[in-house]
């Protein structure tokens, strides 16, 4: 069981997370052992178990870090809408941004999702982390519609699921055929039409 907090815990946790990111990227979730992660971090197994119970716990910590980066990036895009020439395209392009970090995360998260599907308890935990991230996306969608002067006519939680599915599916196709499909192409092309279908203009006030 993880022990109580110490002054060194934040640094130890950060080292483990950094080592896990690198190891998972190279070997995948199944191919990465706790021993290898600890060796790369320059820490003992005892240090690992004082911070995490399992390798799955380590993944979920990385999940939350990645989710916060996504939320921060999209929040900035929504905040910049007032000065953007094409506000919706700005957000969708930012959503589809793909660099090496995003590529590695997609590979790891896809592998872990398959793992979760095979293990119901893990699936429930993953669903809870997804739910918390989706709450932030719902908040961002509400702000986006407000900035666009439109009122959503559908459940925003379902819309968040749909936009996530479009993003992840598009990313998968882009990684397979990078010369044929840019990561943001499907979202930028089709989601603006969807926004019009699932919302209505807000009547101007008196």
Automatic annotation (TrEMBL):
Gene3D superfamilies: Tetracycline Repressor, domain 2 (1.10.357.10)
Keywords, comma-separated and alphabetical: DNA-binding, Repressor, Transcription, Transcription regulation
One Pfam family matching this protein: TetR_N
Top-level taxon of origin: Bacteria
DNA-binding region positions on the chain: 33-52
Species this protein is from: Streptomyces viridiviolaceus
Every HTH tetR-type domain range: 10-70
Coiled coil: none
Classification lineage: Bacteria, Bacillati, Actinomycetota, Actinomycetes, Kitasatosporales
Name of the protein in question: TetR/AcrR family transcriptional regulator
């Amino acid at each position: 069981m993880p022990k109580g907090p110490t002054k060194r815990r934040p640094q130890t946790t950060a080292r483990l997370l950094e080592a896990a990111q690198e190891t998972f990227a190279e070997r995948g979730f199944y191919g990465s052992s706790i021993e290898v992660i600890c060796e790369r971090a320059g820490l003992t197994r005892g240090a690992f178990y004082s911070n995490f119970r399992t390798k799955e716990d380590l993944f979920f910590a990385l999940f939350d870090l990645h989710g916060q980066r996504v939320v921060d990036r999209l929040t900035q895009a929504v905040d910049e809408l007032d000065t953007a020439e094409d506000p919706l395209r700005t957000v969708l392009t930012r959503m589809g941004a793909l660099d090496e970090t995003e590529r590695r995360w997609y590979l790891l998260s896809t592998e872990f999702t398959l793992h979760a599907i095979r293990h119901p308890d893990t699936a429930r935990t993953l669903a809870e982390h997804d739910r918390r991230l989706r709450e932030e996306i719902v908040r961002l969608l509400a702000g986006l519609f407000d900035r666009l002067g439109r009122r959503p006519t559908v459940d925003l939680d379902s819309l968040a699921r749909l936009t996530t599915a479009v993003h992840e599916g598009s990313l998968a196709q882009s990684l397979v055929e990078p010369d044929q499909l840019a990561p943001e192409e499907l979202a930028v092309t089709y989601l603006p039409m969807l926004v019009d279908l699932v919302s209505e203009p807000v009547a101007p006030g008196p």
